[in-house]
């Protein structure tokens, strides 16, 4: 009775195709009946959707198939394919570049990682090197029967919302760099597979957060603050399973929350920001280590000395935990999340950060009914890269019709 | 082709009826053609929806109606009615109670307000008094041809998400008080109109924020942080036009964000919370005024002395502005809102808070591209009450089918 609403039927079909894929992704190989029950759709409706997804190669059928059983028999189990579309994830780190390919089942099927000093680097050589790594992983993914369906890149900086432009990545020294021309633009390499590929660029804390949400969902709730660190400290806020991006895409700048308002000057222009107390160089300095040389070696030394119980190192990490706890207490008061997840480099140092951090949180977010859970990431430094690759493959699961159309077109 | 999805057609109809109402609400009296253009629906579809809303009394037709023109003529303008459903809003303040009724056009048609010392008060007498005020306003609304369709109550405290229970209202001294039995339960008064009425209870900062969003939408964007103060300091976060509630409903506790982590003890258990610097009693004390007696008189004295330029008063407000700026700088770094709106009692003192507040924000949220707009509420202390009444009437606009069903049933 509401008349003709253009696109609505197609929209419902698109959404239902996506819901079927996520139902299978969520429960593993399962019958049509199980999908129907889970989604509250009829068996007939699910069968129609499943046939379309089987034709598109976005679902496969697995045994047990009784003798003589053809495709579509009720007894066969539906599964996501280990061939077909894959997501390419890339990470531009301050001291490394990494790329991986994830299949629709969420498994990493090819990956590579190199040391690369990105501090105050010119973007073009870094992006040229990243292109080679992406092409290399894409070729290896093709050998596995996978076709790159999208590329997502994690960067240690701010990305303008809805764009592929790095507005500011202080540790790389990049300002206003659009990654699209270099990574997926025409002519970046003869016959390359990246040309025209859907490209997403996002902050590493954001992609680390969605990795927690998608890959550790039995443990990580749908409302949480994810704190991560590379050189700076970043956070991502996930609300009801969705990233809070902020109007400009700059949400989550936990590193610049004031902790001691009259404290030392920060590069952001403020004073006494969290990074001045819990950032990598502040902690290394307080621990008596230098951050000038090999970062990875310095962090390993920090962890080893902390494990041995060196007083100065323990005290540096405890102070960092206190500062984190003060900034996070404010964050929890504002956002009332269910959990705080320590990710990235912080996960590694959690044993020594945690007591002070928890004490501040407990004292400053008083009411027992507001208690927040403190979780330590199990993905650690791998989170952003995995999040990127999963984000790229989920574009297909979110919108199977566009994927089908892109293969026809 | 997606099979039978139960409820979908009804859901689309419900949503389209609601969209028609908001289209008329948004542009004022307008033709069916204007509604169709705005919503991207066909004229035929809109005519069908409009007929249904006219029958339900949720739309009316206004001139110019040419002689002989019957209802439904294309030339008539559609408008929301000034009769039919109304929303009742109520506010439990620390020193007052207030109630008003708002018609579907958003106009206040009846209201009342009394002085009532709620500090450390037993809930039952306060709620009994509020019941009388609600009944009084409801009777006056009926005399205007309006029928109460819902009641929403603003409280100075935390409300458990999705419930009518005040978990904690420190200045009232209330803990774990469910308002439903006293306000809309059976037998609260013989033949009362509140029995069974849909009831919503929400924090006053939240309702103040939606009032800004709904009533001042030419000025206030859809992503903002609304800061308000009665005795405590509260905030509400609005993202893309929706309140961020937090997992337990406790989001927005800006008053307990640490400003000077080693500062004075706060009732929340923390130290150096924003309330210790910018809360009402802290500011009055710093200004050399007492907060023990008549709050309204003390605040008026504060405003008058500030206007006269008394140094101690100006300095107290400047310090409060600085503390607000520090806490809000952290908030802006985390959430990247488009604007910060100073509401409630803060609106009145904005001229003296603002310079220091803006200075802190500018220094601590450095990048020009992240500049946030600072707005002063034009609703001030009226915001929460208006927000409550509008929330109650919008339940009908959001779901006209349920309203129609409730009138039949
Ligand atoms: Zn800073
Ligand atoms: Zn406090």
TrEMBL record, chains A, B:
Domain annotation HTH marR-type: ranges: 19-62
Gene Ontology terms for molecular function: DNA-binding transcription factor activity
UniProt-listed InterPro entries: ATPase_NBD, HTH_MarR-typ, ROK, WH-like_DNA-bd_sf, WH_DNA-bd_sf
Family: Belongs to the ROK (NagC/XylR) family.
Descriptive protein name: ROK family transcriptional regulator
UniProt organism field: Streptomyces albus
Source taxonomy: Bacteria, Bacillati, Actinomycetota, Actinomycetes, Kitasatosporales
């Amino acid at each position: 009775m509401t008349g003709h609403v253009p696109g609505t039927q197609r929209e419902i079909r698109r959404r239902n195709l996506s819901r079927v894929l996520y139902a299978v992704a969520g429960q593993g190989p399962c019958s049509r009946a199980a999908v129907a029950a889970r989604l509250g759709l009829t068996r007939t409706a699910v069968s129609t959707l499943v046939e379309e997804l089987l034709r598109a190669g976005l679902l496969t059928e697995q045994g047990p198939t009784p003798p003589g059983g053809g495709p579509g028999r009720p007894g066969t189990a539906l599964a996501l394919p280990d061939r077909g579309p894959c997501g390419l994830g890339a990470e531009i780190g301050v001291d490394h570049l990494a790329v991986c390919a994830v299949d629709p089942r969420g498994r990493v099927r090819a990956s590579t990682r190199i040391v690369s000093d990105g501090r105050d680097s010119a973007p073009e050589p870094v992006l040229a090197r990243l292109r080679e790594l992406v092409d290399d992983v894409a070729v290896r993914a093709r050998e596995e029967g996978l076709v790159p369906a999208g590329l997502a890149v994690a960067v240690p900086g701010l990305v303008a919302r809805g764009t592929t432009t790095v507005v500011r990545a202080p540790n790389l020294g990049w300002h206003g760099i659009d990654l699209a021309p270099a990574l997926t633009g025409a002519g970046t390499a003869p016959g390359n597979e990246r040309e025209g590929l859907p490209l997403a660029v996002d902050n590493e804390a954001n992609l680390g957060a969605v990795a927690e949400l998608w890959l550790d969902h039995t443990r990580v709730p749908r409302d949480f603050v994810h704190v991560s660190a590379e050189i700076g400290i970043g956070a991502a806020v996930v609300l009801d399973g969705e990233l809070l991006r902020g109007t400009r895409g700059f949400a989550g700048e936990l590193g610049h929350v004031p902790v001691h308002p009259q404290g030392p000057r920060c590069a952001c222009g403020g004073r006494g920001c969290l990074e001045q107390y819990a950032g990598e160089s502040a902690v290394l300095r307080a621990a008596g280590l230098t951050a000038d040389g090999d970062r990875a070696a310095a962090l390993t030394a920090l962890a080893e000395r902390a494990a041995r119980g060196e007083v100065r190192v323990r005290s540096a990490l405890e102070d960092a935990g206190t500062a984190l706890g003060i900034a996070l207490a404010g964050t929890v008061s504002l956002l009332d999340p269910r959990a705080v997840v320590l990710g990235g480099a912080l996960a590694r140092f959690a044993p020594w950060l945690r007591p002070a951090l928890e004490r501040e949180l407990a004292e400053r977010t008083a009411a027992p009914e507001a208690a927040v859970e403190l979780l330590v990431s199990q993905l650690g430094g791998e989170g952003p890269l995995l999040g990127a690759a999963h984000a790229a493959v989920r574009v297909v699961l979110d919108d199977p019709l566009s994927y089908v159309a892109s293969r026809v077109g």
